[in-house]
Design brief:
With 284 residues, the protein is of the alpha+beta class. Helix content is 18%, strand content 31%. It folds into 2 domains: 125 residues, no CATH class; 133 residues, no CATH class. The protein contains 6 helices and 12 strands. The strands form 3 sheets. A 4-stranded antiparallel beta sheet has the order 1-5-3-2. Strand 8 and strand 9 form a beta hairpin.
């Protein structure tokens, strides 16, 4: 039997009650939680460490999950599976460049799966960082994913291919710190959501394309590392006349090969609103 946490933290898990939606209340199942978790504040990685390939990451080894050198903001977007640009409000320190960073080692309870780790992390954030969030739709600056002037050059996915929607892409290392993400079967909705993770604004699908496609895009990880160090110039508008600065130029170029493009818009965007979060976690 999976271990659950008998805490009333529905709001902290980003769940709107039926009453809030004008519906009858329905019981919420207790959220899953880690068997045990240790949180340790650590120093941020310096430029030399990043250039040598040491980046904040997440690993699952048997029953242990490790979150390495993660900020609270990074933990939130990983737990809720949303891009950073879809998280709004919260205290100033949450988005600051010198925000605290943490190493977390947690044990998955017997019978749980790695797919349930995000839900367990939500519980951990609610318990240890007192995180409370809710979801809503807001008008915000965004990029519309559009079909280019010459039409799409996407290949349709193989019919009846047994690939679940939202599956992680294949990672193909490239030259000069670039990585290519490849998909055998993906909808444009999911493709746009994945692009959002590497852009400064949310990406919203407005291609009008139905069904599933083969797709890929390239990310300049070295440029992302440089951006983290504040060493690249601000990004230009993808619809503008100027060249797109790193790290997003590699993505824009990848989309052009697929017959797609990005356009600046103000659009309704699903966001995760931070109602409350504490800078220091409770003790282990």
């Amino acid at each position: 039997m999976l271990k659950t946490c008998l805490l009333k933290i529905a709001a902290g898990l980003g769940v709107l009650s039926g009453a809030a939606l004008g519906q009858s209340k329905t019981p919420l199942k207790p959220p899953l939680c880690f068997e045990v978790a240790s949180i340790k504040e650590v120093a941020p990685l310096d430029g030399q460490a990043i250039m040598s390939g040491r980046l904040p990451g997440v690993s699952v080894d048997n029953a242990l999950v490790r979150f390495s050198n993660k900020s609270v903001m990074e933990l939130i977007w990983w737990a809720y599976r949303v891009s950073r640009n879809r998280i709004v409000e919260g205290p100033v320190w949450l988005s600051a460049s010198e925000t605290p960073r943490f190493d977390i080692v947690a044990k998955i309870p017997e019978g749980a799966t790695k797919e349930q780790v995000p839900e367990m992390l939500q519980t951990l954030l609610a318990q240890r960082f007192k995180l409370v969030v809710h979801r809503e739709k807001r008008e915000a600056p965004a990029y519309a994913l559009l079909v280019g002037r010459g039409g799409p050059r996407l290949k349709e996915a193989v019919p009846n291919l047994d690939v679940p929607e939202g599956e992680q892409p294949r990672t193909v290392p490239g030259r000069d710190g670039r990585v290519r993400y490849e998909f055998d079967s993906v909808t444009m909705e999911t493709f746009a959501s994945l692009l959002s993770r590497y852009m400064d604004r949310p990406v919203v699908n407005q291609t009008g394309l139905e069904g599933r496609y083969q797709g890929s895009f390239e990310v300049d990880l070295m440029a992302l590392a440089n951006k983290a160090l504040g060493s690249i110039r601000p990004n230009a508008d993808p619809d503008g006349a100027g060249a797109i600065s790193d790290p997003r130029d590699s993505i824009v170029f990848s989309l052009k090969q697929l017959g797609l493009k990005l356009g600046s818009r103000v659009l309704p965007v699903d966001v995760l609103v931070i109602d409350h979060v504490e800078r220091t976690p409770t003790e282990n």
